[in-house]
Task: structure prediction
Amino acid sequence: QITQAVCLGPLRFASRFVLVGDHYQLPPLVQNEEARERGMDVSLFKRLSDAHPSAVVALQEQYRMNSDLMLLSNTMTYNHRLQCGTEQVAAFALDLPGYAAHVQDALASPEQAWLRTALDPQRKALFLDTDKVPG
Result:
């Protein structure tokens, strides 16, 4: 991420430019309250997208998350428009060699059931409330 001031300098010399990104992710980090009040917490990408919606092309395929991980953002943010780019991406899961032999046996006690669940390679996505985990 870079500041708008850093972006605007080079853009002044361009007759055309392409911005690639997603204004739903990683909003600008603005620590100064006055800057935030003056709108610097809105990204250049978001400003231009809102000002020129006909110039925006929304990509529908993603290659970073399996289908289970994608479900949350796809439901809450993208109105079910996202799709996994390939079946391989959709089905991806961690491969933890030796998991059963090493981790399952080491975490056999009932107090560690939450950790067994969290480390289960068959679970592709899991929300884990750690508030009650002794610490």
